[in-house]
Every structure is written in structure tokens, then in C-alpha cells.
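Q: Here's a chain of 324 amino acids. Please give me its 3D structure as C-alpha cells.
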Amino acid sequence: MLAGGSPSREDLMSCADLAAGPHGHYELLYCANQVRVKHFANTVSLCSIGAGKIGACSEDCKWCAQSAAYPPGRTQAELAEPGELAASARDARCNKASSFGIVNSGLKPGRSDFASVLEAIEQIRRDTVSQLRLCASLGTLTEDQAGQLVDAGVTRYNHNIETSEAMYARMVTTHAYRDRLETLKTARSAGMSLCCGGIFGIGETWADRIDMGLTLRDEVKPDVTPLNFLAPIAGTPLADAEPLSAREILNIIAILRLTLPTTDIKIAGGREINLRDLQSWIFYAGATSMLVGNYLTTAGRSAEDDLRMIRDLGLEVVDGEMQA
């Protein structure tokens, strides 16, 4: 891989088996770190998100507190004011984030939702320094909507495939896996780069994790891959899911680094609650970026603590696009 080779599914399954052994965990992390250093040296990037619309989601993703199908979900959607999102973007920039994403609940944006997002983007561009990359995560898009986002200044679109196609059918019934892939194609055709990853700890196997990674590598080809780790939420179908160990989470990051050697791998939801004292190990496992600040429905660790951790590791925050 360091010489430019690409691992097969069998190779990656063997690595996962190796990591389960008494010493294989550390060997896997060592290999993943070599790949990270080769392509990214000691650089990392940061991003932040803001909730444009929360709750009342018609979809039934079993891990999500925003679904109206489960007790935690709000039955009435809440829209953020454009000024609130602009203030969040300014805070993100102060925290050294180079990207800021507006995230809406729901299968697709409605007319008023979409107009509000465009207004927020205009205000952010007017109020915030130009180096801040604007991203959006609004669900499925039409070609016209994708074009409007590009014209407004959005350069990257987030739409996760979440897990393997086989596992996905057990977790979501209200829309198909292929719908997600079509949305990614629409966003890329409009000129946006792609942020696409998934969630772990929902009962998937190592085969599911590796199949998801191979779909990303061979079909989606994202610029950024966010990795989320389930924090079970009361009232959702996965409320009683067994949490992943910190060691297994690091193994997942490492396998994704080996699968996607030149992709910016971002650690997102579930970092603090699941990794606890091992948060700094995400970079040794192969990650190259992380989300800073709050999430959509839960608070994150303080940006000051995250920036101190990065300094202590001797890493450099990139102010702009990560280049492998």
C-alpha cells in the first residue's frame, strides 16, 4: 500500500482478524499511521456543523433521535434563523474550522427549508471570512437544487451511505441505499465535492464495515469520509445497543485508512462518549480531521480542549483543503 497498491476485500478482512489478536491491534494502528503520514504528514483539518432544521423527520433510521417515528423525535420541525447559522459559522472560524456545514433533518428539503438555507448561506458569505468552505447536508436533491447550492457558494455536499448495502436494509426502510448513491451522483455532477461516510456500532459485522469502505473507495470516491460511532439514545430501536469498545473504534478507523489511503478521514459523532481518554489516538489510527464544537442534538467537547490536544500531539491544523 505504501508503494501505491490497493488492498482487496480479503486483505482487509485479514487485517481485521489480525487486530483481534493479542498484539495485532497495535500493529494495525502502526500500519495505518504509516499510511496517514505518507499522504498527509502531520497535518489535520477541522470542521463544524450547524442545524438548519431539527426534528420531524419522516425517515426511520433506527439510530436517529430526529425521526418522528420514535419517542425522542420532535413532531414539529424547528428551523434555525439564518442569523443563528451565520453566528455558528463565525464561531467555527474562530475555532480554526476550515469548513462549516448546514445540516437539515428530513428526506429532502421543502421549498421553505431550502429558501432558508440559501438565505443563511448568503449571510454567512457576507459576514464570514472567505476561507471558510461552505457545505450542506439536506437529504436527497434535485438537479436544480444542487445547481442552486453551487451558485450560492456551497462547494461540498454531505450524504452518508451509513453502512453496507446488506446492513442498511435492516436499519432503514423508508428509502433505499441506491437513493443515497444517486444523490451523491447528483451533487457531484453539479460540481460539488463529496463528504460521505457512515455510522458504526449499529450491529454491523466486520464484513459490513469493509463492504461499506469498498463502496466508498470504488463507487463513491469521496473527498472526505466522516466516521460516526453510535451513542445509544433512549426511545430509539438501538437504545440498548452494546457500545463499541475504544479499541474496536480505533481498529475501524485504521481499516478505513487502509481502504482509503488518500481520503481525508473525519471523526465525527460519538467521539467523546465512546473514546473517552483515547480520543487523541484517532490520529495514530489514521484519521486526518475531526468535527469540533457541538453536534446536531448533543453537545461536543470544548474547542479549546480539542485544539490543545492537537497542539500536544505536534500536529498542524490546515487552514483550507486537505491535500493527500
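Q: Can you summarize the key feature?
A: DSSP finds twelve helices and eleven strands in the chain.
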